[in-house]
Amino acid sequence: MRQILAIAGLLIKEIFRKKDFYVALILCAVILFYASQLQFYNVENITRYLMEIGLSLCFIFSAVLTVSLAARQVPSEVQNRTLHVLMAKPLPRLNLVLGKFVGSLFAGTLCFLVFYAVFLFFAFSKAHAISWPMAGQTVYLFFLNLMILTAMTSGFSYTLTVSANVTMSLIIYILINAYGATLKESSAGFFWFNRWLAEGFYYLMPHFEFFDVRQRFIHDWPPVSNKLVGFLTLYAVFYSAFFLMIGWLKFRKKPL
C-alpha cells in the first residue's frame, strides 16, 4: 500500500506542475465570468444556461486532463528508461498498475474539484440558491465516472501509444455519453445480426451516461436514491477492476 500511495503522490504533483491545468482553469473561469454577465428577460433561464455551461466545462476539462495524464504514464516511463529503476525497488507489477491508476484518478479528481469550486462560485452568485445535496451527489457520481475512464485509459496504456490511447479513450467516452442511451432503441430497425451485435455491445460497454446527473442539478430535481447510488458504485468498481485487470495481464507478460 505504501508503494501504491508513493506512486500516486508523484502523479498528483505532476498534474499541477503542468501548464495544461492552469490554462484550463483560466479558460473555465473566463467563460463562466462572461456567461454570468449575460442579461435576458428570464433570470431563471439565465441561471440554468450558466449551470449547463459550467458543469459541461468541468466535466470536459477534467476528463481530458485525466485521460492525458493516465495515457502517458507507462509509455513515458519506457521512453525515459525509468521503468527499470522503479521495478528494481523491488516493486510488484500489480502495485505499479494500481499506483498509476490511483494517482491519475485522484489527480483528475482534484482538478475537477477546483473547476467545480469555480463553477459553484459563479452559479451561487447568480442563483443565490443551490441544492447542496444534489451538488454533492454530482461530485460523487462524476468521481465514479472518472474512475471508469481512468481505469480504461490506464489499462490501454500498456498496449497503445500515448496519442492512440488519448484518441481512442476520448472517442469512446464521447460516443458512449452521446449515443449510449439510445443505442438499443436505434438497433431495433437493424438486420437481425447487426441488431444482435448492437445489443450485445450495449450491455457490455461501460455506460458513462449513467453517472450524468447534470439535468437533475440544473432543474433542482431531488437526488437519486441511495440504492441507485450503491448500484452505480458497484458498477464503477466492476468496470474499473475489469480494465485494470486487462492492463495488468498485458503488463505482467511484458519484458522490461
Characterise the protein shown here.
With 256 residues, the chain is mostly helical. It has one domain. 79% of the residues lie in helices and 0% in strands. The chain has helices at 2-17, 19-36, 43-79, 83-87, 93-127, 132-156, 162-179, 183-186, 192-204, 214-218, 226-252. It starts with a helix and ends with a helix.
What key attributes describe this structure?
mainly alpha; 11 helices; 79% helix; globular
Helix-strand layout with pairing:
Layout: H1 2-17, H2 19-36, H3 43-79, H4 83-87, H5 93-127, H6 132-156, H7 162-179, H8 183-186, H9 192-204, H10 214-218, H11 226-252
Quick synopsis:
The protein is an all-alpha fold and 256 residues long.
Number of helical regions: 11
Number of strands: 0
Anisotropy-based shape? globular
Helix vs. strand class: mainly alpha
Largest sheet: none
In whole angstroms, the N-to-C terminal distance is: 23 Å
Q: How do the helices and strands follow one another from N- to C-terminus?
A: HHHHHHHHHHH
User: What is the domain total for the residues?
Assistant: 1
| Contiguous runs where pLDDT drops below 50 for at least 5 residues | none
Roughly how many Å is the radius of gyration? 20 Å
Strand content: under 5%
- Would you tell me the overall average pLDDT? 82
Helix content: over 70%
